[in-house]
Design goal:
8-stranded mixed β-sheet; alpha/beta; 562 residues; 14 helices; 27% helix; Rossmann fold; 7-stranded mixed β-sheet
């Protein structure tokens, strides 16, 4: 088998995330599995080998030759299957649940030490129209084609399909999208081209309260052009919507990276927030506040968390990576105290406001990196809730969290492979996976939210033994020796990969190892972190752009290299 070869086969199963497995018979004696993305179990597909390394083969889907027996439904939107958003809408919801359960079990059975209780996948109360937040992109469907506004074509970072009838969102959002698109099409306004870094229109960020019907419209553009948006505002306010637009914002973003962020926000109408209700509590949500995208599914998720954490009436709870404090506030009425830690300051301020609005006085929210903030918190937790970003917990932060040695940890993950990686260290530190379940927060897609209850097994009894070395006044205890040893422990090695991951997570763009080496060279630091570093990297390289150099410097400061 080699790159460029074309094969046909049946997708035997789909592993997370979206990795279809096809068995290929190369000859009578030799066969191997090839990973083919964007397929459904049971489909007969035609594909080309585009990667082949160390015996592992990946194929790019060329054509679906035969539908899967599991495809019992007709597509629900006009851009399926070209759109990469809803992969499984032609499967019954029951079959989607079975597939996701299989994906979780295959990963977790390998990651978990010993037996554990798996309680299946809980369905979302709403299969369609469940998303309360959507980021749509401006672009074109093909090079130099008419302006489009919607979602990226499957496997493409440039081609954008107009999502005029997206079924993941409320119809109100589709009406707003088409109003905005028509307005700019008629005026032939340019969109931002990511490679050339020129153009005006970037994104349309829509947020709608599932329970309140309140809508926040956020138009994201560059500052390269200036347009009067008053007429667009009027057109939006005249739309026949089931909900109500409470705010229209113009967000200015000149970042080179393709992320939705604000350099400046202008209010064109109303306010820069809306309200949503969840489990009897009210939450104020701003454009960039984290809030579970499926409100009804979030209620199932948080009720499960409350069940897993057990009786906390006299306990202090740490809610780490707390976002806008939804979990903290759901738990506060049944806890002694809840302390939430979140790196996004805007989210923390929203959490404080929400807690006050809901009459909760036993919540405290702290803005900062979990790794650094834990050193400053005087209180010690009795139980810990972990709800980290998609990539899991930073390897420097996780040991510090585990050092508390709490009896129970509830870990919530939207990426089961990151969860599996973190479980390795958690279990090494004496924790046992008691039980696990999942909530389908992202119907029709490859994603699912997994919840794990971990307990720390303490010994039934403890024998204290005092150990000292030396004689007379020169005696020194074992604890004192251990403290001395800590002072001489070398700092954890900071790798190029750690710097790259930090920069991409914080700034939304990638930096190569050569750029990192150049920055370290300019600071007089050792440039290499591996004995087998390539000769190419050792050679003089072009200086990194200012933006990337500054990002690398920030990463070096974060890891205390400088």
């Amino acid at each position: 088998m080699k790159k460029g070869q074309i094969f046909e086969g049946i997708i035997e199963r789909v592993d997370f995330p979206n990795k279809g497995l096809v068995k290929v018979e190369e000859d009578e004696k030799d066969s191997r599995y090839v990973t083919v993305k964007n397929a459904i179990p049971g489909q007969k597909v035609r594909f080309i080998i585009n990667k082949f390394k160390r015996g592992n083969a990946e194929g790019r889907l060329l054509e679906i030759l035969e539908k899967s027996p599991l495809e019992t439904r007709k597509p629900v939107c006009s851009i399926f299957p070209s759109c990469g958003g809803c992969m499984y809408q032609t499967m019954s919801y029951e079959e989607q649940m079975k597939m996701k359960e299989g994906q979780i079990r295959r990963i977790m059975d390998e990651a978990v030490d010993g037996e554990y209780l798996f309680e299946g996948v809980k369905e979302s109360p709403k299969e369609f129209a469940y998303r309360n937040k959507m980021e749509f992109s401006f672009g074109d469907e093909y090079k130099d084609g008419p302006l489009s506004l919607g979602l990226h074509k499957k496997g493409s970072t440039y081609d954008v399909l107009t999502a005029s009838d997206c079924k993941l969102v409320h119809e109100d959002m589709n009406k707003i999208l088409m109003c905005v698109l028509k307005y700019f099409q008629e005026r032939k306004i340019s969109y931002y081209k990511k490679m050339q870094h020129v153009g005006y229109l970037r994104h349309l960020l829509l947020r709608r309260g599932d329970t309140t019907g309140e809508i926040l419209v956020n138009l994201v553009t560059t500052t390269q052009e200036k347009h009067d948006l008053s007429e667009l505002t009027e057109q939006l306010l005249q739309l026949p919507l089931e909900g109500k637009i409470v705010g229209i914002l113009h967000i200015l973003n000149d970042s080179l990276s393709d992320v939705v962020k604000s350099d400046e926000t202008q209010i064109l109408y109303g306010q820069d927030f809306f309200y949503e209700k969840l489990l009897g509590l009210e939450f104020k949500i701003t454009p960039f506040s984290f809030f579970q995208p499926n409100t009804k599914g979030a209620e199932v998720l948080y009720e499960t968390v409350r069940e897993y954490i057990g009786d906390i009436r006299d306990l202090t709870v740490f809610d780490l990576f707390s976002g806008t404090g939804t979990i903290s506030q759901v738990l506060a009425p049944v806890a002694k105290k809840v302390i939430g830690v979140e790196i996004v300051e805007e989210a923390v301020e929203a959490a404080k406001e929400n807690a006050a609005r809901n009459g909760l006085t036993n919540c405290e929210f702290i803005a900062g990196d979990v790794f650094k903030v834990l050193d400053d918190i005087k209180e010690k937790p009795d139980v810990i809730i972990l709800d980290p970003p998609r990539d899991g917990i930073h390897p420097k932060a996780l040991p510090k969290i585990l050092d508390y040695g709490v009896d129970r940890i509830v870990y919530i993950s939207c990426k089961m492979t990151s969860l599996a990686r973190d479980l390795e260290l958690i279990q090494q530190r004496g924790y046992t996976v008691e039980k696990m379940t999942a909530v389908d927060q992202f119907c029709e897609t490859v994603h699912v939210e997994t919840i794990v209850l971990l307990s720390h097994k303490s010994p039934d009894s403890v024998i204290n033994v005092k150990v000292e070395f030396g004689e007379g006044d020169d005696k020194i205890s074992l604890d004192a020796i251990a403290e001395r040893a800590k002072k001489y422990q070398p700092k954890p090695k900071v790798t190029y990969k750690m710097i790259q991951e930090y920069v991409e997570k914080k700034y939304g763009f990638k930096v190569n190892t050569a750029y990192i080496a150049e920055v370290k060279r300019s600071l007089g630091l050792t440039m290499y972190d591996a004995s087998n570093v390539t000769e190419e990297l050792k050679q003089s390289r072009k200086q990194p752009p200012k933006e990337k150099a500054e990002a690398i410097m920030e990463a070096l400061k974060y890891f205390e290299v400088i």
